[in-house]
């Protein structure tokens, strides 16, 4: 899971796609893993006092 302030975010399945060719961040079947990673990152941001603004992780309709 990768998110940056100015770029699209990334979510890879490195078990099935070790070369990270497929970005699953907008795949509805990966919503739960994305939420898990997002929550971990959010917790780290809060615990460290980082000013990074996390993106909205809701999928487009």
Automatic annotation (TrEMBL):
Name this protein carries in UniProt: Uncharacterized protein
InterPro entries: Alkaline_phosphatase_core_sf
Source lineage: unclassified sequences, metagenomes, ecological metagenomes
